[in-house]
């Protein structure tokens, strides 16, 4: 449980730092180009890097928390029956 809370706090802090402009745009754009090239999709233009980074961060939070919720929900249902 502590790990989930720490993950959420750190990820939200990262999103806040990106939104506030504390992370330089060239570094952010480079990280997104690296991430997109690994996945095999077209990287965003440098002007939209901040928006895409926030979308990735929000998607990661939703996916991780959703998967953990489903894991707990399903395992408690299987154990009860």
Features of the shown structure:
about 80% helix; about 80 residues; mainly alpha
Helix and strand pattern: HHH
Report low-confidence residues grouped into runs of 5 or more. Answer: none
Individual helix count: 3
Strand content: under 5%
Q: Structural class of the secondary structure composition?
A: mainly alpha
Instruction: Specify the helix fraction band.
Output: over 70%
Tell me the number of structural domains.
1
Overall form: elongated
Report the major sheet. Answer: none
Overall mean confidence score, pLDDT: 91
The total strand number stands at 0
* First-to-last CA distance: 24 Å
What value does the Rg take, in angstroms? 16 Å
